[in-house]
Amino acid sequence: MDFKTQLTGLNQFLSTILGEETRISGLLASLGFEQARIELLRDQHMEPVVSQFVEVIHKRLTSDSGKDAWFQLLNRRFGLDGEPPEPLDAIAGRLGFSPEYARQVYEEVLQKCRYKTTLEDFKKNLRYIAIKQLGKIAEPPRRDDVSAKLERLTNLHAAADLARMDYEARRAEILKEIQAELDALEAEYEPLIEAAGQNIAALEAEIKNDVLLHGESVQGGTYRALYVQGRVSWDNEGMSRYAETHADILQFRKQGQPTVTLRTVEEKKK
Questions:
Q1: In this predicted structure, what is the pLDDT of residue 267?
Q2: Helix-strand-coil percent breakdown of the chain, rounded to 5?
Q3: What backbone torsions phi and psi does residue 139 show, to the nearest 5 degrees?
Q4: What are the Cα distances from residue 119, in Å, to 8, 10, 99, 204, 230?
C-alpha cells in the first residue's frame, strides 16, 4: 500500500463528487480548520486521517447485509486502498459484472456520494477524525484564544446587523413609493390565499386521518402520504439504573459524537 497513491486517489474521488478540484486539505479548511493545523496534519500525520476517512466511505457504501461491491468499485477505480487504480473494465471482471453494468453502478454510486446527506456525513466524520488526530499531536487551543475569536465573532455579527439595518432602511424608502399599490394588491389576494390555506389544512387533516385508518402509505398526484409506525423510545434514566445491575445491556448503548453550538449571551453589566 502506497500512501501517496491513496492520497491522490482520495483527492480525485473528492474532486469527482464535488464537481471541482478538491483536496482533503481544502475540505478541512472548509470545515473551519486553521491553516497551521492543516499543515501540521499534512506534514506528519495525514496518513491516519486519510486511512480512517476511507474507512468512513467504505462503511457508508456497505449495505446492511455487509455487501460492499459499490465501495470496491470506487476503491479500485481511484486507488483508495493505496494500490494503482484500474479501469472499469478490469474491475468489472473481478467483481463479476459486465462492463456496461459496472459503468452503470459506477455512475450510481458517484451520484449517491453526491447526495447532501452523504456529503454531510463525510464532512462530519472527517471533522471528528481530524479533531481526534490533532488531539493526539497538538496542544489544545488556549481558552483566551477561543474567547478572542468569540469577541471577533461578536464584532462580525454586529457589522452584519448594521449592514442589514441600513439595507432595511433604504428598502423601506423605496417601498414608500409603491406602498399604496402593494396594499391594494394584498387586499385583493389575501382573502383568496387565506381561503386556499384553510382548504389545504382541512384536506391535509382529513388525509392524515384516512391514512391512519388505512394503515399504510398512499400516493396520489405529486404527494405521498407516508404512514410511519410510532417511534419506540426508552426511559434513559430507568435504563441507566437497570444497567447498574445488568452491565451486559451496555453493549447495545451508543453515544453520538460531541457537538458545539454557538449561542448569544447577555452582556454583563459593568
A1: 61
A2: 70, 0, 25
A3: -70, 145
A4: 19, 14, 27, 33, 29
Q: In which band, very low, low, confident or very high, does the pLDDT at 72 lie, cut at 50, 70 and 90?
A: very high
**Which residues, in sequence order, are CB contacts of 142 under 8 Å at separation 6+?**
none
Q: Quote the CA–CA distance of 136 and 198 in Å, as a whole number.
A: 58
Question: Hey, how many other C-beta atoms are within 10 angstroms of the C-beta on 58?
Answer: 17
φ/ψ (deg, to 5) at 220: -165, 140
Q: Helices (DSSP H) in 115-225: which residue ranges?
A: 116-137, 143-176, 179-214
Highest-confidence segment of 61-75, 103-117, 220-234: 103-117
Size (the chain), residues: 270
Cell of 141: 487551543
User: CA angle at residue 24 from 259 to 113, to 5 degrees?
Assistant: 75
Long-range contacts of 68-71 (CB under 8 A, 24+ apart): 69/95, 69/105, 70/105, 70/108, 70/109, 70/112, 71/109
Q: Are the C-beta atoms of residues 92 and 99 closer than 8 Å to each other?
A: yes
d(CA 270, CA 251): 51
- Report d(CA 37, CA 141) in Å as an integer: 11
Could you give the CA distance from residue 110 to residue 89 in angstroms, rounded to a whole number? Answer: 17
**How many other β-carbons are positioned within 10 Å of the β-carbon of residue 2?**
13
What residues contact 97, with CB distance under 8 A and at least 6 apart? 91, 105
Radius of gyration, alpha carbons of the chain: 27
* pLDDT tens-digit series, residues 30-59: 999 999 999 999 887 999 999 999 999 999
Name the burial class of residue 90, with classes exposed (0-12), middle (13-18) and buried (19+) by CB atoms within 10 angstroms of its CB: middle
Whole-structure pTM over 0.85, yes or no? no
